[in-house]
Amino acid sequence: MTRFNGTDKVKSWGHAIAKRSCHRRACVAVARKLAVIMHAIWTDGTFYVGDPAASQADAGRRAHGKARKLLGAHR
Predict the structure, then answer these.
(1) Are 31 and 39 in contact (CB under 8 A)?
(2) What is the mean pLDDT of each run of 10 residues along the chain (75 residues)?
(3) 71, HSE (Cβ side, Cα atoms, 13 Å)
(4) Helix (H, G, I), strand (E, B) or coil at 4
(5) What DSSP assignment string belongs to 22-69?
(6) How far is residue 31's CA from residue 46's CA, in Å, rounded to a whole number?
(7) For residue 69, what are the contacts with CB-CB under 8 A and spacing of at least 6?
(8) Integer Cα distance of 16 and 50 in angstroms
(9) d(Cα 68, Cα 37) in Å, to the nearest integer?
């Protein structure tokens, strides 16, 4: 929550928790949510785009580029 300066859905969610509760609980909640997201990415092979301003086309373009990189690495 403190290192990343960009906009992200999880970060804004964590800031909302920090306003209601304390910063430590918000950090733990964000860490757990990121762990769940990373596990889903690892098992499903999906991609995470946390920028709320990113369009569906931009997210698809990023996913396609990442898939091309991964396929090129396995050849």
Answers:
(1) no
(2) 81 94 95 92 79 68 72 62
(3) 6
(4) coil
(5) -HHHHHHHHHHHHHHHHHHHHHH-------TT--HHHHHHHHHHHHHH
(6) 19
(7) none
(8) 16
(9) 22
Rounded alpha-carbon distances, angstroms, from residue 40 to 33, 37, 43, 45, 48: 11, 5, 5, 8, 10
Show the tokens assigned to 42.
């690892």
**Unique residue bearing structure tokens 């960009």:** 6
Whose CA is closest to 33, among 48, 45, 22, 54? 48
Phi, psi of 65 (to 5 degrees): -65, -40
3-state DSSP assignment of residue 3 = coil
Cα dihedral sign, 53-41-57-64: positive
pTM above 0.85, yes or no: no
